[in-house]
Amino acid sequence: MDIRLSVLDTSPIVAGSTARQALANTLDLAVLADELGYHRYWVPEHHGMRGVASAAPAVVAGRLAAATHRIRVGAGGVLLPNHAPIVVAEQFGTLTAFHPGRVDLGLGRAPGGPRSAVDLVRGGRTAPDFREQVEELLGYFTPGDKPLAVPAAGNAPEVWLLGSSPSSARLAGELGLGYAFARHLNPRDAAEATRTYRSAFRPGLRSSPVTLVSVAVIAAGTDERADWLAGPNRVKVARRLRGERILLPSPEEAAPQPADPLDHVLVGSPPTLRDRLRSLADATGADELMVTTPVYDHADRRRSYELLACL
User: Fold this and answer.
1) Percentage with pLDDT > 70 across the chain
2) 151: closest CA among 226, 94, 235?
């Protein structure tokens, strides 16, 4: 395909695994993605979610950058209401100083977990105005005689605004930032949000608009194999809709259980996925697609990214 592909990795903890193993898998997959030619590799911020090991994106991104050579690395994203902007600027300015030209900072406003965990992260503080936080953060990267975030001044990462609604798209456009839409969370509004972003765009850090759309994809050698690998995620979604939270089971464990269709996940062999991904890029006008792959076995996840890299 003539569109960039990137990776979104939550460091998933599947049934029978641990956070340590999940993070080791993330490191392994990042090295593979670097070798395969993927453009960037993002890790998110989540708290108190037992199926997600990615809680400290600045720490994880630093490890990934040190282990890779070419691929961009970063946060997809830092949930800014959880933090003081100056601390985020110091962290990502430091990363950029170590790895110039390779660090991304995606910014989101979601809490990132259950309220009990998020309240601890925020120390009881209420969420401040998000736009004001973003503008404060961006100011720390500007060189000056008396910088407040010393490692950030002159060491700006590539900044994106993350979202899953037209309102986030409008803010990204007004601030002149790149916009990353989370289609894997909200497939229905992807085209509307990217249109809203381009319409609202005013030159800022960027002189022209750029869009990235994240999408859940499961690739395998055949459509039948891909459908089998998708079974665990179907079961997990069905259980979540019933108010039950489970770790991703194996395909064998998932096979006999009731499951929901996965309309938001693209599933199939490379020929099937090539057409579907092309259609998604055309519908949204995306400059880049960022793939997350919700499968049980790490070897199957590696294979899925290998197949997609050949499209």
Assistant:
1) 98
2) 94
Residue 106's pLDDT is what? 98
Q: How far apart are CA 19 and CA 308, in angstroms?
A: 26
Answer yes or no: are the C-beta atoms of 162 and 150 closer than 8 Å: no
Give how far the C-alpha of residue 159 lies from the chain's centroid of Cα atoms, to the nearest Å: 13
User: Alpha-carbon torsion 141, 104, 94, 80, what sign?
Assistant: positive
143: left (phi over 0), alpha (psi -120 to 50) or beta: beta
Q: Two tokens at 17? A: 């695994």
What is the H or E stretch that residue 194 is in? helix 190-200
Mean pLDDT of the chain: 94
Contact 258, 245 (CB under 8 A): no
Cα angle 233-236-241, degrees, rounded to a multiple of 5? 125
Q: What is d(CA 173, CA 195) in angstroms, rounded to the nearest whole number?
A: 10
**Calpha distance 209→150 (Å, rounded):** 29
Q: Cα–Cα distance between 273 and 191 in angstroms, integer?
A: 19
Helix (H, G, I), strand (E, B) or coil at 220: coil
Task: For residues 53 and 76, give the distance between their C-alpha atoms in angstroms, rounded to a whole number.
Answer: 14
The DSSP bridge partners found for residue 72 are 40
Q: List, in order, residues 6 or more apart from 110 with CB less than 8 Å away.
A: 79
Q: Give the largest CA-CA distance in the chain.
A: 65
Q: Residue 126: what are its φ and ψ, rounded to 5°?
A: -80, 155
Among 36, 79, 38, smallest CA distance to 58 is for 79
Q: pTM of the prediction?
A: 0.95
Give Cα 3 to chain centroid, integer Å: 17
